[in-house]
Amino acid sequence: MARYILKRFSLMIVTLLVIITATFFLMHSLPGTPLKNEEKLSPELRAQILEQYGLDKPAYVQYFKFVGHLVQGDLGKSLNYDGREVTDMLMQGFGPSLLIGSQALLFGVLIGLILGVLAALKRNTWLDSLATGASIMGVSIPSFVLAALLAYFVGVKLGWLPATGYDTYSATIMPSFALSFAVIAQISRYVRTEMVEVLEQDYMRTAKAKGINRFAILVRHALRNALIPAITVMGPLAVNIITGSLVVEGIFAIPGMGKMFVESILNNDYTVIMGTTIFYSVLIVVTLFIVDLLYGIIDPRIRITGAKE
């Protein structure tokens, strides 16, 4: 197991390094500079400001300087937000995205698991049709369309919940539900498909013949084996939701990571672009790393195969 973890951790570090390097040089290939009202600046003042931030140096020099600061945990200061620390900006924007995303993920996984298991146990019944229909709708309807419909009908027309803002907890319910719909669809579809296949296996019949409790069979054998494909999609879904849907956050006026990331790109705010990209990347690779470990725990055959490789 230790060798398996070490191999996955090494791949995670290499992946992060590649992402940081590619993002840095692609970012510097964008037209323009982070300077506001650049056309109104005199050539002398423009050169002075670029020198102050080290932007007059070649890209590779700036890259090694950035990596040196990054190793020390310093992401630098924003070039467009009055010199605010990028780390502080990330923490401020991540809070709303984390709350909404965590709620969406928790609700989506729980409902998805329940629907998937019930659909597999009640195949070819109205419950199976309901779960399948909900799965198709969740995959087909984009989260921002559902968010717009919820904001208009539930928020504006009926007035049951706040349509925009982030002042009260009730304002987080609709964005969370809009994001959770896709999670419900994905999890229920994968769990239902795998549960149907697992329930037909010979070892399931053997367990029943031994007189093992039906609930124990479902939890220890059927659900455990059916969870592997579900965990595969759970990792990317978790990162995508927690970091926040750009459009959904915009519809409900949520001051999360999405808004900050888009504004940093539009303003060529190099430090914020790098900070948000690294933040996203770390979340993704760490989540996938945890998913890999869960594979090894749920199915030891994966762990053994990885060790042999």
Automatic annotation (TrEMBL):
InterPro entries: BPD_transp_1_N, MetI-like, MetI-like_sf. Its main location: membrane. It comes from the Bacteria. Keywords: Cell membrane, Membrane, Transmembrane, Transmembrane helix, Transport. It is found in: Cell membrane. It is a multi-pass membrane protein. Gene3D superfamilies: MetI-like. Pfam families: BPD_transp_1, BPD_transp_1_N. One of its GO terms (biological process) is transmembrane transport. One of its GO terms (cellular component) is plasma membrane. Residues 94-295 form the ABC transmembrane type-1 domain. The chain crosses the membrane at residues 9-30, 98-121, 133-154, 166-185, 227-252, 272-298. Belongs to the binding-protein-dependent transport system permease family. This is Oligopeptide transport system permease protein. It comes from Croceifilum oryzae.
